[in-house]
């Protein structure tokens, strides 16, 4: 009776997730179409469409860079440093928007795959509650996106207001009217924060669902420790192997997307953190510097945390496979299990420039280096 209830509950979870995720996917695809300007199926001007949004962000980078000579003539350290920090920040947004435009199709395929995972036959055979995990993940992803969007909008509003009150213009415009220049600055800042929210939301979706899917796979592997399951489910190891290969293939796509986005982020984060820490020491009552610092650190912490999770979860697959009742399996199944263990000996890691791993150790190292550089700058001042 309890098994029937569990099965019925699992089916309800799957139906609920499928409906909710379908609505969610439509919104994500619409955002990707806007970023890549790909509203039609025709392949005409595909490259030109992809560079429209990066071109808009690139224009703001040029505008900010053009303002540097005017900022250097200003005696205020705040204006000079803010201008330089803005260039680094905009360069980071430019690299992220460019990466999403380039890897838009891969991101679409990954998002589609997340919705198809719950239909895998392997979960229903082993009575693994994939629907429940996926439904919770969708809820947490939506909450994270909502919190991130709110935080970014509050931050940019405070930044724009602070720059207006301190009479700091960070973008060059050909207009003479000071008020109109500030209006353009407000417009640019809000436009850029929308781009940043979109990219960060996509990264949150990818991170949340990959961790969830690996957890579902681990739940399925742990079922192989049950004697009854091993004896009654003959030939199931082929399905395990097929699912494992699919996860590894999608993780390779994720690595490629993250490599394009995070390489520039880590380099610019170091410079922005050093700059904001320096500004916080010079202007301890300037609240905008504290807010920028918290946003940058939180943003970097999140990506390092996802990298840590993916590394640790893929590492757990090897242990979970070893702890199964492999000694009670048929020889063919044992060989498949051995091949899977061979594949999982080296955990999957997100990497910067294909060399340096993104994990909590990276976060600590960058923060230490930032504080060291800041202390050096403060000593030389």
Automatic annotation (TrEMBL):
Listed A to Z, the keywords are: Cell membrane, Membrane, Olfaction, Receptor, Sensory transduction, Transducer, Transmembrane, Transmembrane helix
What GO biological process term is on the record, naming one?
signal transduction
List where in the cell it is found.
Cell membrane
Q: Which organism is it from?
A: Lutzomyia longipalpis
A GO term, aspect molecular function: olfactory receptor activity
Q: Report the protein name in the record.
A: Odorant receptor
Q: How does it sit in the membrane?
A: Multi-pass membrane protein
Q: Which family does it belong to?
A: Belongs to the insect chemoreceptor superfamily. Heteromeric odorant receptor channel (TC 1.A.69) family.
Where does the chain cross the membrane?
143-165, 185-218, 266-284, 290-310
* GO annotations of cellular component type: plasma membrane
């Amino acid at each position: 009776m309890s098994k029937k209830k569990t099965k019925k509950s699992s089916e309800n979870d799957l139906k609920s997730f499928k409906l909710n995720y379908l609505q969610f996917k439509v919104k994500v695809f619409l955002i990707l179409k806007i970023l890549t300007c790909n509203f039609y199926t025709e392949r005409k001007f595909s490259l030109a469409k992809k560079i429209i949004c990066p071109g808009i962000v690139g224009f703001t980078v040029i505008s900010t860079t053009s303002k540097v000579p005017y900022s250097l003539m200003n005696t205020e350290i705040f204006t000079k440093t803010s201008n330089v920090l803005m260039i680094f920040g905009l360069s980071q947004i430019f690299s992220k928007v460019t990466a999403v435009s380039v890897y838009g199709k891969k991101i679409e395929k990954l998002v589609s795959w997340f919705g198809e995972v719950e239909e895998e036959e392997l979960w229903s055979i082993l009575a693994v509650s994939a629907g429940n995990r996926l439904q919770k993940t969708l809820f947490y992803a939506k909450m994270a996106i909502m919190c991130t969007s709110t935080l970014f909008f509050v931050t940019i509003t405070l930044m724009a207001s602070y720059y207006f009150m301190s009479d700091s213009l960070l973008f060059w415009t050909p207009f003479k009217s000071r008020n109109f220049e500030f209006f353009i600055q407000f417009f640019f800042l809000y436009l850029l924060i929308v781009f940043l929210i979109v990219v960060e939301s996509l990264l949150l979706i990818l991170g949340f669902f990959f961790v969830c899917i690996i957890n579902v796979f681990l739940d399925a592997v742990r079922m192989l420790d049950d004697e009854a399951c091993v004896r009654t489910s003959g030939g199931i190891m082929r399905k395990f192997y097929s699912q494992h290969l699919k996860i590894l293939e999608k993780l390779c796509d994720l690595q490629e997307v993250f490599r394009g986005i995070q390489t520039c982020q880590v380099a610019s984060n170091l410079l922005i953190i050093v700059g904001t820490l320096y500004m916080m020491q010079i202007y301890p009552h300037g609240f905008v510097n504290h807010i920028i610092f918290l946003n940058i650190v939180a943003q970097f912490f999140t990506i390092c945390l996802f990298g840590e999770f993916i590394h640790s979860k893929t590492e757990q697959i090897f242990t979970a496979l070893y702890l199964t009742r492999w000694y009670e399996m048929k020889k063919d199944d044992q060989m498949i299990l051995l091949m899977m263990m061979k594949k999982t000996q080296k955990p999957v890691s997100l990497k910067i420039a294909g060399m340096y791993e993104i994990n909590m150790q990276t976060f600590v190292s960058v923060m230490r280096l930032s504080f060291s550089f800041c202390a050096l700058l403060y000593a030389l001042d």
